[in-house]
Amino acid sequence: MIALDSAQTVSSVLVPPLSATTTFAGASGAIVRVVNAMQSATVDIALAGRMTQSGFSSGLTLQSNAAFRAISDPIIVEEGHAPFVVFTSAQPARLLYAGTGTFRAGKQYIVVVSGDTAVRSITMIDEDTQVQTLLPISRGSLLQIVNGLELSSSSSSAPQFSIISASSTLLRNASLTYGNSLATVVPVGIHRITIGGVTQSLSITAASTDQMLVIASGQMTAPMLQMYPINTSTLRSFATNVLWQRYIHSARDVGNLMVSNDSVGGSSATGIAGDFPLRYTVPASWRFDNRDTRRTLVFWEQESRRIVKRVENIRLQIGRNYSIILIGRNAPQGDDATAGYDVLFVQEY
Known about the structure:
It is a single chain. This protein folds into three domains: 2-136, Sandwich (Immunoglobulin-like), CATH 2.60.40; 139-234, Immunoglobulin-like, CATH 2.60.40; 238-349. The protein has one helix and 27 strands. The protein has one helix spanning 232-235; strands spanning 2-5, 10-13, 30-38, 43-47, 50-52, 55-57, 60-66, 75-77, 80-88, 95-103, 108-115, 119-126, 138-147, 160-165, 169-175, 181-187, 189-195, 200-206, 210-219, 222-231, 243-249, 257-261, 287-289, 293-301, 307-316, 321-329, 340-348. Strands 4, 7, 9, 10, 13, 16, 19 and 20 form an eight-stranded mixed beta sheet that branches. A four-stranded mixed beta sheet has the order 8-3-11-12, with no helix packed on it. The protein is globular and about 70 Å long. Mean pLDDT is 83; it is low at 267-271.
């Protein structure tokens, strides 16, 4: 029995032991169940990207649409680093909590998500230990990595990313194709991100209150890693009443970048407020709109007025936060099909 103590009331939930008929033949990992002890929210609880014995796993849902006192079905999880994330089930999704724990093979865990109007803690209860001190897992920082490295005919394989902390390797050689991203949770502290072993590295300092976006850009032979921290308190100050957006220039061979509505504008970006023109790797400040908007975005070079990319009829929804990123390279006449530019819409939580 788990006592659920909140500011409003005290209640409990009975978590029955796993049935003797419930078998996990050949299971080499941990058996995990999740209990939602939050009275005020229906939530989704998952593991973000992590390394397992089988290699890189992009994520695993532990419980969806979990109401108060809901108990998930048991699930087998491979041992190792456990990057927990809790989101609101209602859309637009909001990240409520990110934290890191560890699963041990052969163990049975009850994972309890506690809080009132916000997630206060996540606690892992070892069902095999009768007397134990229950401590919440450590809070962490949600980290998203975007691969904007230029494609070329001579480099067709996906680059591999690793995240190394002082005591362990959180990710090792996780392949990430062009234009895609991965998300994980890193503990508070200093970590090193590498591409291709020692080709390039970036040191980051994770704080429990922020999220981080890292973009890899430039050439495969000379990549650049750039970190863009996200202070979630700023984005959440208007709750779901607005949409936040910022633009990031990650295309190495484009000069000063402008962004306009519908067509190439004048000296400033028509209808798009912000710090324009944008220089390579320097983001615009966050700006907000107070309603849904549908736009045709034109990305163009200030000096030459060359249109780099046109994105038709894009809907930006209220309650969401977007990093809008230009990636890619120029496509001279006769160049291979890997050239060109793309615009990524990365949602922040």
